[in-house]
């Protein structure tokens, strides 16, 4: 599935690139021009589906559904990061996660699993139960042990941009140049990860749509991905059901699929290659068409 184009584009941001994102010994982009990360929230209070998959059985059923619909990665999290949310303890987070990870490892052993956490101890335990990617919305800032863990484990790593914490991030966020400022702050975290020993080819970057941004900042980050692409790593976009879509259209959380597809297709056309979504089947179709338009096969 590799389109014709400039062979020098080696990071997969434009047609002709050969994406590479390693998790342990696996290139997650092997034979895949883009990746869909399906969301499994094992939380009582996530903004979109909080409480729906809090039981291990419900979470496993959702994971299996997303895998059947074509998810390349399952992103499993047990702490809500919606605006204004309070943190949970590592013990509570792990108590929610452990049975789900064990069941997914047993029933869906072939799919890549990402653990959505800012705590190194939770990430370490998750890696021991089959996860191969750490998705850290704090980009290693919340826990000083996170980047060394990513380095020593050789797991894949997502570094996401966020100013503040979920509790404080929407308290009057302001940017003069959201794409440039976000790219500069992500560059600092990327350098910190590399200095901690994380290989660059194990890192993906996420500008953090909806995390400490106004609606206009989120739109600007989708419109102008060039500064993020210039970091030289695959770009992950997670706009699924986010408030920016409601701000533009007035749609409620449960009625934002069309807007989500529009944002993710636009992001793909502008170079993003990883998409964190709730609705996998719809994205598989929409992004496959967008990739064909870009020149993919």
Short description:
The protein has 297 residues and is an alpha/beta fold.
Characteristic terms for this protein:
single chain; alpha/beta; eight-stranded parallel sheet; two-stranded antiparallel sheet; 10 strands; disordered N terminus
General description of the model:
It is built from 10 helices and 10 strands. It has helices at 56-68, 90-107, 120-128, 146-153, 178-195, 215-223, 226-229, 243-249, 257-269, 280-294, and strands at 22-23, 26-27, 35-41, 73-77, 112-116, 133-136, 156-160, 203-206, 236-237, 274-277. The strands form 2 sheets. The protein has an 8-stranded parallel beta sheet with strand order 8-7-6-5-4-3-10-9. The longest helix has 18 residues, at 90-107. It starts with 21 loop residues before the first strand and ends with a helix. The relative contact order is 0.14. Mean pLDDT is 90; it is low at 1-16.
Cα distance spanning the termini: 5 Å
Number of helices: 10
Q: Write down the CATH class.
A: Alpha Beta
Number of strands: 10
**Overall number of domains:** 1
The helix/strand series, from N terminus to C terminus, equals: EEEHEHEHEHEHEHHEHHEH
Report the CATH superfamily.
Dihydropteroate synthase-like
Q: Remind me, CATH topology?
A: TIM Barrel
Which architecture would the CATH scheme give at its second level? Alpha-Beta Barrel
- List segments where confidence is low: pLDDT < 50 over at least 5 consecutive residues: 1-16
**SSE-based structural type:** alpha/beta
| Overall body shape | globular
- Main-sheet strand order equals 8-7-6-5-4-3-10-9
Helix percentage? 25-40%
């Amino acid at each position: 599935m590799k389109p014709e184009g400039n062979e020098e584009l080696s990071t997969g941001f434009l047609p002709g690139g050969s994406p590479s994102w390693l998790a342990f010994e696996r290139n997650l982009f092997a034979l895949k021009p883009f990746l869909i990360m399906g969301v499994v929230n094992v939380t009582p209070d996530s903004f979109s589906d909080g409480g729906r998959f809090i039981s291990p059985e419900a979470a496993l059923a959702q994971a299996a559904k997303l895998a059947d619909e074509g998810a390349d990665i399952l992103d499993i999290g047990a702490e809500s990061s919606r605006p204004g949310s309070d943190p949970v303890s590592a013990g509570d987070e792990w108590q929610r996660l452990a049975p789900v990870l064990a069941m997914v490892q047993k029933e869906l052993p072939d799919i890549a699993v990402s653990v959505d956490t800012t705590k190194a101890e939770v990430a370490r335990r998750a890696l021991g139960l089959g996860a191969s990617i750490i998705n850290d919305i704090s980009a290693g800032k919340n826990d000083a042990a996170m980047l060394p863990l990513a380095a020593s484990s050789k797991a894949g790593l997502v570094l996401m941009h966020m100013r503040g914490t979920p509790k404080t991030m929407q308290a009057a966020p302001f940017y003069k140049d959201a794409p440039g400022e976000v790219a500069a702050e992500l560059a600092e975290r990327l350098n910190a990860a590399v200095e901690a020993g994380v290989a660059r080819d194990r890192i993906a970057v996420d500008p953090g749509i909806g995390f400490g941004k106004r609606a206009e900042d989120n739109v600007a980050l989708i419109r102008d991905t060039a500064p993020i692409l210039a970091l030289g790593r695959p770009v992950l976009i997670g706009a699924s059901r986010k408030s920016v879509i409601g701000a533009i259209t007035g749609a409620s959380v449960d009625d934002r699929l069309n807007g989500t597809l529009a944002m993710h297709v636009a992001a793909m056309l502008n170079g993003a290659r990883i998409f964190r979504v709730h609705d996998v089947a719809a994205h598989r179709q929409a992004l496959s068409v967008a990739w064909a338009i870009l020149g993919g096969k």
